[in-house]
Amino acid sequence: MFATSDTVARALAADIAAALARRRRLVLGLPTGRTPVPLYRELVRLYHERRVDFSRAVTFNLDEFLGVAASDPRSYRAFMQRHLFDHINVPADRIYFLDGTVRDVDRECRRYERAIGRRGGIDLQLLGLGANGHIGFNEPARALIAHTHCTRLRPATRRANAALFGRATAVPRQALSMGMATILHSKRIVLAATGSEKARCVNRMVNGPVTPMLPASFLQLHRHAEVWLDRAAASRLG
Ligand code: GLP
Questions:
Q1: Which of 57, 94, 145, 209 has the most CB atoms lying inside 10 A of its own CB?
Q2: Is 3.40.50.1360 the CATH number for 5-229?
Q3: pLDDT value of position 6
């Protein structure tokens, strides 16, 4: 546990830089959202100070909105360019993203799973936590889908993403996302959560039952899953 979201970001960026120094060909799984913004800012700062090298890193982002092109400023791809990729030396051909504009969605999902496999699987999967307990876009449901798939977004999730689209009703109703197995097959997982709005969900994720109604609770089944919190997000831990 860390005092603030900035201290979480600094510690996590240092951890990632060390992992990249040990093994430059690290395969990273990356999230979007407000939580990773300070982390990406810190990684950019370390890069400018020549303290981290992404030249042989590989990245796979967790998810993308259906029907939104990479070139659209509202896409997760554009978000990643703005906050990270435009400022570091990860080669474009090592950046993998789901394409939300494809005609054949199932094929696109299979392509992504194959690409992850060809790169030897994800070494370090970073995650944020949706306010309703989702990870990636694996929404609370009676059952979860194992592999990369097209999913319907809950109204709360569309509201949480309203800032990108101006208003919640403009947020696409569907998205492509890595599945729960795609995430759980990562060698190491770090979920970061900050702020008091996440505190209740964090407690249920860590101390509650493993249930598809709170997808993040599945991380309890992983041997190398870590939860990095600031004080506010940890405030309801029982
Ligand atoms: C989105 C993303 C998730 C992310 C979540 C939390 O819905 N698809 O991957 O973890 O938001 O976002 P925030 O960090 O803004 O709370």
A1: 57
A2: yes
A3: 97
